[in-house]
Amino acid sequence: MQMEQTRKIEKNIITLEHVDKEFEKVKEGGVFEVVKDLNIKVRENEFLVLFGPGQCGKTTILNMIAGFEEPTAGTIRMKGEKINGPDPSRGMVFQNLAIFPWLTVMGNVEYGLRMKGVDKKTRREKAQYYIDLVGLKGFENHYPIQISGGMKQRVGIARAYCNEPDVILMDEPFGALDAQTRYLMQDEIIRIWEAEKRTVIFVTNNIEEAVYVADRIIVIRNCPTNVKAEYEINLPRPRSYIDPDFLKLRREINNVVDHTL
Amino acid sequence: MLERKAKMWQKIAAAAVSFALLILIWQLAAMNPQFSQVMPGPFAVLQKFFVSFVEPIGKNVMLQHMLITLSRWAAGFIAATILGIALGLTMGWYRGFEAFMRPLFELVRPIPTLAWIPLVILWCGIGELAKYVLVFIGAFMSIVQNAYHGAKSVDRTIVNAARMLGCNDRQMFFTIVIPASVPAISAGLQIGVASAWSSVVAAELVRSSSGVGWIVVTGQQNNNMTQILVGILVIAVIGLLLALLIRRVEDVLCRWNKRGR
Ligand SMILES: Nc1ncnc2c1ncn2[C@@H]1O[C@H](COP(=O)(O)OP(=O)(O)OP(=O)(O)O)[C@@H](O)[C@H]1O
Ligand SMILES: [Mg+2]
Q1: Chain A residues closer than 8 Å to B158 by CB
Q2: Does the interface predicted TM-score (ipTM) exceed 0.85?
């Protein structure tokens, strides 16, 4: 079919063109430039990592792509259409979790489907699939307060996936985890991505993690931020942290990234 | 677990000792005839209390008086709960309605329930309706105020999370704003219970022919100190039980907010 042919060509699903973002300084007056002339093309089904130092504006960029914030200038499009507010086609895993504390694990994961009016049986089945996928089987009826930080993070991931968005935005999803759980979760997120093949935009400030999970890494600079460098990561999966090619890439990227205190 | 139980018994023992001391001192004082003229001893009061369940005070026995007062309380309190939560949440969530309603509410809120009594009697007469209205006013203000703050302080990222999962405006109010405000609403109900209870007693003190407040005033009119103390004792105990009841309700509604079980 004709569709098949076009799919083979790499398509951009999201494009950011000359995006600026300023915040008003409430106390001192004036504005604070967080993003300045940012240009990014996100390819369909890729695992894109946005890598940048702390406070450089990573969350701000994701918030604009999600539609929670509007750019001060420039345009962000998804499939050619200008992004106008949040939409279920773009799911987000929040840096500060933002899971609903009054709903159980199951209630959180099925929430999007419930809002869509999917009948209970269908949405339970689907939610269960994603709960199992992130390894939360047996915790369906626990409230967020009864589970650990890492488990909450997984709830956020399952909740985003269960809504079947075309693009998943992940904002330092493993930032709060201990090193051991973090390694486990990196493998898991790759496994889910390979099973689901959706576009992922993954934000991190950890080089190892970036090189470990990414198809492509975009390094962004300090505030006011924009693209500093770009790397295609063609290392075969599953990757190893001590592979010489891995270490070489890691060092290369380390040399280019801005360092902040 | 065992340690917690031991702690609980320690607390109960401490409370028992303080009550025993109060009764002892009161009893010792009451042995002095001059004192017992103005203040009968604890056993006289307790005896009168139990007798009043079979020997009517006025037209009713004690249980009837209690039920009369409680039903007045319940009518006003339930109405205040329903309308107060509805008004508080809509005022806290919808900006336009807030701008319209809040100034008016802020003007009315500081008026003490007692100051309403003359007006309410002129409007509603001296019958039951006036008492319901006074109880309503007593509870309404703090219920509105707390529900308002609950809706006002719903976490932004929680709201964003719901929007990216596809919930519409109506669903936002019912599935996010209401549950997120439950802890604040419960706090309002705690205060509301107490102020509704004081209001019903105040209303009965002013004008009534039955109820526990009436027991106290007629005690005063007949110079019957024992009856006054019985009335006060009953008011205290029922007030305490109502507060405990609402705390139970809160425990059930907010179980997602409490750690471990
Ligand atoms: N709503 C806002 N109003 C004003 N300034 C803001 C706002 N949001 C973010 N900023 C500022 O923009 C800058 C970038 O914030 P952002 O949260 O995007 O950084 P980040 O890269 O995600 O940081 P982190 O690594 O800590 O997650 C920060 O200096 C922050 O103070
Ligand atoms: Mg951030």
Answers
A1: 98, 100
A2: yes
